Write a sequence for this structure.
């Protein structure tokens, strides 16, 4: 019996997706629920499992092609044997052996994403895992090795044709041997670019700044971090304090938690906080739903989980959709000050930065304190400067007196 492999129904906000690399070739046996191919949307990478066990009889859509919801991309023969006859009459492009691609199905999702992002050949990477399996550390070590310089022959350059994003792209050589490489944007990168431009073109973005003394938060963290980790199984970071501080401010100034819909202002009676997370594929913003109802430990656990699954490309579309307010932490990369861009249709975003020890005046004395600059970008169409400044001051005060914030007084 022939079973069609179809693209799952995508979100209404996603018109189409792209196929990355097939993990099976025509004529190979597949197991039920085995991942056949990764499907990239403008938000996440989805694994497409085999609906039935059998043999991959036909590939309708190849690597790098665009697809839509419920489109047929392959056919599985559930009654066939894994025999050479299945591949008879197919084009060489579909049946040519490729050791690099055939080994990718045995890689973990994290390793496979690294290999694909850097256009690596898994055969060239030595594995140190069980049974010689390639680990993430093996890939990172391979990337740190100095690349061997190669110069493709001129005739190879002139014959170069456009390739799918999942395949290696040959460098273009000028007469001065200056290297260039043209790489198509991933759907995620293109979507991020589109939304950033949209935000700047449609919203009246203004940014207000302040600074916060992080010593009280540092004192609490240093005093309780070991017991906290032992009790809850997760490290006590700083982001949970900022989430709590932001919620305290949003409750005082609901307009900062609102959004714009054409000519209407939508006030949200809930607090879905987006946490900007960097991943190998680009920036993603998973959502902490009903964050006001979460404890410090629950917030830390979910943020840690977001970070792992963002790196592995395992976040779902639902987890990246919505949100009433966003927090972005450029401090992890060493940023001292920046102006974050709104995440439409939200009306505000908080930018955190690196904590530096600086001399500050306290009670008429110059003292050294761990200080962080905060930046709140807001949509001036609906948020006045007064509400923006006062909400940022409320966050600052909550962080400088975390006990009062946690006690909600």
């Amino acid at each position: 019996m022939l079973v069609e492999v179809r693209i799952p129904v995508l979100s209404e906000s996603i018109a189409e997706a792209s196929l990355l690399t097939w993990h099976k070739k025509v004529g190979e046996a597949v197991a039920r629920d085995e991942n056949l191919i990764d499907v990239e949307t403008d938000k996440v990478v989805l694994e497409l499992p085999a609906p039935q066990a059998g043999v991959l009889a036909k590939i309708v859509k190849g690597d790098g092609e665009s697809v839509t919801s419920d489109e047929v991309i392959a056919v599985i023969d559930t009654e066939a044997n894994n025999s050479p006859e299945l591949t008879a009459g197919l084009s060489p492009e579909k049946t040519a052996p490729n050791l690099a691609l055939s080994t990718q199905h045995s890689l973990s999702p994290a390793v496979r994403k690294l290999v694909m992002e850097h256009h690596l050949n898994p055969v060239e990477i030595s594995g140190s895992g069980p049974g010689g399996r390639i680990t993430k550390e093996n890939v990172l070590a391979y990337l740190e090795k100095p690349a061997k310089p190669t110069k493709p022959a001129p005739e190879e350059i002139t014959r170069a044709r456009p390739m799918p994003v999942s395949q290696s792209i040959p460098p273009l050589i000028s007469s001065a041997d200056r290297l260039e490489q043209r790489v198509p944007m991933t759907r995620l990168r293109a979507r991020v670019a589109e939304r950033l431009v949209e935000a700047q073109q449609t919203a009246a973005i203004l940014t207000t700044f302040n600074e916060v003394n992080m010593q009280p938060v540092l004192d609490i963290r240093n005093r309780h971090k070991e017991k906290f980790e032992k009790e809850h199984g997760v490290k006590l970071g700083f982001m949970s304090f900022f989430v709590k501080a932001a919620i305290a401010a949003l409750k005082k100034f609901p307009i900062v938690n609102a959004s714009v819909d054409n000519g209407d202002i939508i006030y949200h009676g809930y607090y879905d906080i987006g946490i900007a997370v960097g991943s190998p594929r680009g920036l993603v913003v998973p959502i902490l739903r009903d964050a006001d109802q979460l404890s410090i430990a629950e917030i830390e656990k979910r943020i840690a989980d977001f970070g792992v699954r963002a790196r592995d490309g395992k976040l779902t579309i639902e987890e990246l959709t919505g949100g009433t307010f966003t927090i972005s932490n450029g401090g992890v990369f060493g940023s001292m000050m920046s102006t974050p861009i709104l995440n439409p249709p939200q009306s505000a975003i908080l930018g955190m930065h690196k904590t530096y020890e600086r001399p500050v005046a306290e009670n008429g004395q110059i003292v050294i304190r761990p200080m962080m600059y905060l930046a709140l970008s807001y949509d001036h169409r609906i948020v006045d400067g007064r509400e923006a400044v006062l909400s940022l001051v409320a966050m600052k005060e909550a962080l400088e007196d975390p006990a009062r914030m946690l006690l909600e007084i």
Q: What stands out?
A: The two ends are 67 Å apart (CA to CA).
